[in-house]
Amino acid sequence: MLSMELENKVSFKRCIREGDLVIVYERHDNMKAVKVCENGVLQNRFGVFKHSDWIGKPFGSKVFSNKGGFIYLLAPTAELWTLVLSHRTQILYVADISFVIMYLEIIPGCLVLESGTGSGSLTTSLARAVAPTGHVYTFDFHDQRASSAREDFEKTGLSSLVTVGVRDIQGEGFPDEFIGQADSVFLDLPQPWLAIPSAGKMLKEDGVLCSFSPCIEQVQRSCETLKSCFTDIRTFEILLRSYEVREERLESWENHAGGSLGSRKRRQRSTDGSNGVEASVSATIVARPSSEGRGHTGYLTFARLRCVI
Questions:
Q1: Is 31 helix (H, G, I), strand (E, B) or coil?
Q2: Is 50 exceeded by the pLDDT of residue 6?
Q3: pLDDT grade, residue 248 (50/70/90)?
Q4: Strand-strand pairing, 111-115 and 135-140
Q5: What is the pLDDT of residues 217-239, one digit of tens each?
């Protein structure tokens, strides 16, 4: 569904068809991917939703259940797919992914090498970034994970943009067929320093490498290896802080002389005129950091292949 092929391209103007993959949105922290079937039924706390009612509606539609509850039917963008995919391994999220794509300088037409594939969260966004003429070659040493990733890319319409291979990149390196062909290389490995020499051979002149590591000790050892043939070595940690913005009711107290006695939060409107004091309730917008904010995911180390003069 994320394919860049014209006849398959998802847009909010195209209506949902049988066999389409849609993201069912209940709330910001509760979404799921559902394949539309003529006789299919979705049941949740909001009621029963018939897939047949979805067919013919455009992506983004609000549909109702037998109980009057509702959900939204969203197109499976790379960002939403990252939030609903099966976690076979730790995944990268939107903040890290967007940073990686920018610093790897990935544009349509690029050839990108990735190891390892894992759950395919980053791979999905890489494929969209290189479309329609580029390609992502991703490798995982675990055969079952690679097979599951292929199935996911088929579901999301990315199979023409992504090739999944089974290979131990740490031990064997990347295939020789890619020597000097890659615009960018991404490594998500326990011992990335073992794959860095091979990655350097795969990159075009002035190509960029990124290594993702959860521990700073991995970063230190990788940077030592990178110094041999890379330059502009930099490491970042992306920390995303989200905010909750909502309306709160505040109760302020004043005496008849006009003096303010302060204010406090009040969930229900009430007044108390006793002893010459009156209470009034007003609505105000309150913003505070979300308690669900994600912390450290890992370190991103970037380096540029040194040009040979």
A1: strand
A2: no
A3: confident
A4: parallel
A5: 999 999 999 999 999 999 999 98
Token pair 């229900």 in the structure block, residue: 268
| Mean pLDDT, all residues of the chain | 86
pLDDT on residue 278: 60
Cα angle for residues 98, 215, 299 (degrees, 5° grid): 20
Binding annotation for S-adenosyl-L-methionine: 119-122, 140, 168, 188
pTM score of the predicted model: 0.76
Phi, then psi, of 179 in degrees rounded to 5:
-55, 125
Q: Are 244 and 214 in contact (CB under 8 A)?
A: no
Q: What does residue 176 show for φ and ψ, rounded to 5 degrees? A: -65, -20
Residues 6+ apart with CB under 8 A from 208: 103, 104, 105, 183, 184, 185, 302, 303, 304, 305
The whole-angstrom separation of Cα 195 and Cα 154 is 28
Distance CA 105, CA 185 (A): 11
Residue 115 amino acid letter:
S
Residue type, 152: D
- Element (DSSP H or E) covering residue 184: strand 182-187
Binding residues: 119-122, 140, 168, 188
